[in-house]
Amino acid sequence: MRTLVDIYDYCITKPGTTEDLPFGPTPLVYKVAGKIYLFVGNDEYPPTIAVKGAPEDIAQLREQYSSVFAGPYLNAKHWTTIQLTGEVPDDVVRSLVDTSYALVVKGLPRAKRP
Fold first, then answer.
1. Average pLDDT across the chain, whole number
2. DSSP code of residue 111
3. Domain span at 20
4. Over the stretch 40-95, which tens digit does the pLDDT of each residue have?
5. Positive or negative, the Cα torsion across 6, 7, 13, 18?
6. How far apart are CA 113 and CA 65, in angstroms?
7. Tally of domains within the chain
8. What is the CATH number of the domain that holds 21?
């Protein structure tokens, strides 16, 4: 998952996912039931994504990969930014997106869950 097309193709298959540009031309966001689960730096090269995760997992990822870091404007305890350089394996990126989606869905009222 190294391109914006890879991210789109993966995220759009998740139930209830919508794509939006609520802050202007950047960042692109993916939402479920109106709640953001993924930010995409669509004006950057290499592209970046920001995902939600468990604080202990985020800390471990930042130690393991140089392309994983705290991004601006987001709570660094619960969100992390990943440069899609290829350093982080595709299966790990997919897992991070899945986790972010699952955490947001879990926080939704039952009636709004897809």
1. 94
2. G
3. 4-112
4. 998 878 999 999 999 999 999 999 999 999 988 899 999 999 999 999 999 999 99
5. negative
6. 33
7. 1
8. 3.90.1150.30
Structure tokens at 23: 């802050």
Q: Give the separation between CA 75 and CA 87, rounded to whole angstroms.
A: 23
Q: Containing H/E element for 92?
A: helix 90-106
Residue keyed to tokens 């609520």: 22
Q: Collapse the DSSP code of 40 into the 3-class scheme (helix H, G, I; strand E, B; otherwise coil) and give the result.
A: strand
Task: Look at the block and give the residue holding tokens 């404007």.
Answer: 73
pLDDT in tens, 5-42: 999 999 999 999 999 999 999 999 999 999 999 999 98
Distance CA 94, CA 99 (A): 9
